[in-house]
Amino acid sequence: GFYGNFGGAFIPEMLYPNVQELNEAYTTILASNDFKKDFNKLLRDYVGRPTPLYFAERLSERYQTKIYLKREDLCHTGAHKINNTVGQILMAKRLGKKRIIAETGAGQHGVATATVCALMGIECVVYMGAVDIKRQAPNVSRMKMLGATVKPATSGSQTLKDATNEAIRDWINNPTDTHYIIGSVVGPHPYPDLVAKLQAVISEEVEQQLFEKEGTKVPDHVIACVGGGSNAAGIYYQFLNNPEVNIIAVEAEGKGILTGESAATTRLGRSGIIHGSKTLLMQNKDGQITEPYSISAGLDYPGIGPMHANLFESKRAEFISVTDEDAMKAGLELSQTEGIIPAIETAHAFAIFKERQFNHDEILVFNCSGRGDKDLQTYTDYFKLID
Amino acid sequence: GFYGNFGGAFIPEMLYPNVQELNEAYTTILASNDFKKDFNKLLRDYVGRPTPLYFAERLSERYQTKIYLKREDLCHTGAHKINNTVGQILMAKRLGKKRIIAETGAGQHGVATATVCALMGIECVVYMGAVDIKRQAPNVSRMKMLGATVKPATSGSQTLKDATNEAIRDWINNPTDTHYIIGSVVGPHPYPDLVAKLQAVISEEVEQQLFEKEGTKVPDHVIACVGGGSNAAGIYYQFLNNPEVNIIAVEAEGKGILTGESAATTRLGRSGIIHGSKTLLMQNKDGQITEPYSISAGLDYPGIGPMHANLFESKRAEFISVTDEDAMKAGLELSQTEGIIPAIETAHAFAIFKERQFNHDEILVFNCSGRGDKDLQTYTDYFKLID
Amino acid sequence: MQNRIHQRLQQPEKIVSIYFTAGYPKRDDTLEVIQELVNNGVDMIEVGLPYSDPLADGPTIQQSSTQALKNGMSSQLLFEQLKDLRQITSVPVIVMGYFNAMLQYGVKAFCESCEKCGIDGIIMPDLPIDIYQAEYQSIFEQHQLSFISLITPQTSDERIKQLDEASNSFIYMVSSASTTGSQAGFGQTELDYFKRIHDMRLKNKLIVGFGIKDQTSFDQAAQYTSGCIIGSAYIKHITEHGLRQTKPFIKSLKEQ
Amino acid sequence: MQNRIHQRLQQPEKIVSIYFTAGYPKRDDTLEVIQELVNNGVDMIEVGLPYSDPLADGPTIQQSSTQALKNGMSSQLLFEQLKDLRQITSVPVIVMGYFNAMLQYGVKAFCESCEKCGIDGIIMPDLPIDIYQAEYQSIFEQHQLSFISLITPQTSDERIKQLDEASNSFIYMVSSASTTGSQAGFGQTELDYFKRIHDMRLKNKLIVGFGIKDQTSFDQAAQYTSGCIIGSAYIKHITEHGLRQTKPFIKSLKEQ
């Protein structure tokens, strides 16, 4: 359950049976033909996989390099999140669970969870920070349309971190009939591994699609934004052990590293424990977790998954942080150059061209992890699009 | 250019050269390998085709029949509309056009047009009723993010019909450099045929996918909502000449046929001319076009495409109309039974179970033409989802 | 066929023709506007039958149409208002409208009503000539109604010949490809176009419409044609000044 | 190792142990609360080191932690506040907190500071026993600190034996699977569970926590164990009545 110095399961004993049950079952279930068959069928017919690998001609021309977009924004519900929730709901059914809980920040994971629960007819409770409930109203509506109960987390900053705390408490209080669907590669082992394996389909498809288009399975760079890091885990997965592939992780710098309003964990954090996992973490000297800030509600998390902490520490991945402003501009640029409005999370990945240059024959694969419909209000206000 | 008694090109002479240019070129272009190659590539890599044919297990169980959903809601930008705009932008480039105009009601076609214009780097002007601009603000933001100019139509009821008038006027005023991308199977010949052929990919895929799943290419029923009728044209296309396939068209009854607030054209309209086409049309005794009403901005159109008028008159298709209330309930049901929140337009198609029963071994293919994200506010208000 | 339009076109003087919307500004102003125009020496009149969706018109005419419809204007009412037309004037009068209104009234009935009122011609911009020729030409002719086509700078020579063939009396030459009222003055492009069509020596006379608002533009257009139609500029004028102020408007066009 | 906890556990009387959050209600109330508890005959004290994200706690303790952190509470400050602890009492005192706070302070330094203050044990619900045993057990023991594990009704017998092996002095028996403060009274299920664990005859004593709020629940739990820990109920009491009203609260538990 460790990635180098990171990972593990730093959980209260009350959670041990739940986590242990999952830990004992998950590798067997994931490996079973029965699970694979159901999972692949739903990914194909319900989620809409494989998602395209799209060569962005105009963007490539602008930056004089070869840019491919893995189109997770085309997944059902609008982001890669659903790959994981489809897998976990199938797992929950096999574990005999009758009730699903989840945490959500911007609401994408909450929607993806509510979606698969509606699909399976299973009760669903989503914890969401009271502040996020207000600022992400459309996703709250979506969850309610899907029949889920949305419970506000009113502690702390009333955002993602606190929603996660509440979900964990719910799980402690409902140890036998409930499965907790974590939305990112965070939390106690086996979650980071489980979620990464369920998202690995992204890079599996990239290999095959890149081979069809470029005659090689090996891109020069794979690039993703990292909040918790599930979309990044998905697009890195197949390339982790291939040193020919440069891995680039883009963190949310918020208003700037030194402003106190940032979510760039690898630059501002140090090793600690959050949500049951040892990882890099923004905290004060006493180990109290500090409030992160990003214009993107999905990157507004004070830690990163332990896998990513290890990629950072071992220098396997290149970490770049970009500000709100650069991310927003990159979102606008992608919209107007390729006709794809990205989620603001995703827009961060496309902001690296200010920081980083590439050769004209290098192949870059970006994870276009989510669509920007949920962020229209933010974009509109930011760019004053409407008088 | 006629479908039985309907169709033609009833246009002012000022439009004749534009329409004639298109008419002379479109069949050749559509048939060319070069166009097909570009079109299919963009449909695959950019739009995300083929969209899945999804067997809706829980809905099938509820209605004791076999229900398949053609998942056009998973297309880039969230509806089938983009199949057409991708095709037309490629056509416009081949015609040497430097500027694109379009009309839009709910905004989906406007977004799809703005999207392909951004993709190709071509100037884009979208006409939209001033009333629709207000009530469909998120789609206005999307178009502006994509770099399009949104021009308000301030005449008449300030909705789709008036936006179409304005777009036609723009085309009259810009006869050489501009291509007008109509969003539905309406307007003067060759538009109804052109748009239907570009949307035909939907039923082409259905045939192949149904064969994989059921061992037959022939469903018993194909079902779609009809406003102008482009999604319906797409899913009917391959089956039009196969009498084994029952075609069901669902119109928006609004508040009820007799209330004066309805958009059920085949029940309330008669033959007349709208937007350059002879078709069924809601009008007063003097031939003045009357204002339609539907809770769905996309079905809020006083005519239907001439192809559909002919399907109605020839009794080839079965026409059913459903009220706002039944459509909204069907939207909620699909959300909570299958985890798919449909556009309110699309929801109309799923409301037929109140009107119509099916045998347990019949195969129904619904065109799940668009996602409901744009309609969340309407759903939320209607069902009082948020306190 | 030999109606008032043909007769007028045989005279050498350039034609000043005015378009206005029936039932505008007030429902029952139709005949009064005609009287004003006639009193001030207008040579020909186009009476616009207002339509809910006037594709070929610019904002001025569209607004007048919307108002006229609100006022209760309709085909039937128009024919009632014009039933004594020939008691007040003998200038040619043409009805201009959109084909759906005619279709719903019944093409035959519409032509009959026109004839009864003493209407001389019909301009239906959205009635295609092939359909006109196949289905309606004989009806028009039976009722002594001239069918008048439009051409634009984009219309091909071949197409112009077809339109000339279908038309009767004159061709409505759209000065530039645009909806009514959207252009300002004529440049060399338009003049070349006027000359080009003039030199085609068509069987029908030419009258220019769209973009005429003052004597300069009138003179430019009339140089190669039989005259001009003024629409938006007149409607704007009576909207601002009232229909009683028709005189100064016409005077400004016919000063010479 | 033989510290104050072991000594107290050797006595037959049931233990009333109170949990409170350091720095609550006011930053410098820590020692005063301990004084109040001692004065009113409490047998053991858990001092909660407040944490920003207390996963295992219910709303009452979480709110007290949030307030304490706002008040400026920290590990360093706690050890300063407790430096004279042993001048006022000899009852066993345990620090309860989350592992990240300990980790950031330094596990060795944390244990040293505890020893200096006269702390007897540490409860870190999110420090897994395998990691404790592999990395920290020798440090704890070196500083005479009991490591105290939690068990719940869902904990398997095998796991209980492992936890018993790792623990020193007593096992914190969570009455039912729930965060603190969320249960109301004990039913047959809990009683069966208490008896079942009692009958396992572990090397460590048992103390019950979670869900004890009055004498009835105390007596039920104590029947099979060495005593109980009361947390949320006490914090609620001093939030409402002030820490000076500790006496009636303790009295209601120890009336018999």
Automatic annotation (TrEMBL), chains C, D:
One of its GO terms (cellular component) is cytosol. This is Tryptophan synthase alpha chain. Gene3D superfamilies: Aldolase class I. Pathway: Amino-acid biosynthesis; L-tryptophan biosynthesis; L-tryptophan from chorismate: step 5/5. Keywords: Amino-acid biosynthesis, Aromatic amino acid biosynthesis, Lyase, Tryptophan biosynthesis. The active site is at E46 (proton acceptor), D57 (proton acceptor). It catalyses: (1S,2R)-1-C-(indol-3-yl)glycerol 3-phosphate + L-serine = D-glyceraldehyde 3-phosphate + L-tryptophan + H2O. GO terms for molecular function: tryptophan synthase activity. The alpha subunit is responsible for the aldol cleavage of indoleglycerol phosphate to indole and glyceraldehyde 3-phosphate. CDD domains: Tryptophan_synthase_alpha (cd04724). It comes from Psychroflexus salarius. The lineage of its organism: Bacteria, Pseudomonadati, Bacteroidota, Flavobacteriia, Flavobacteriales. PANTHER family: TRYPTOPHAN SYNTHASE ALPHA CHAIN, CHLOROPLASTIC, TRYPTOPHAN SYNTHASE, ALPHA CHAIN. Its EC number is 4.2.1.20. Belongs to the TrpA family.
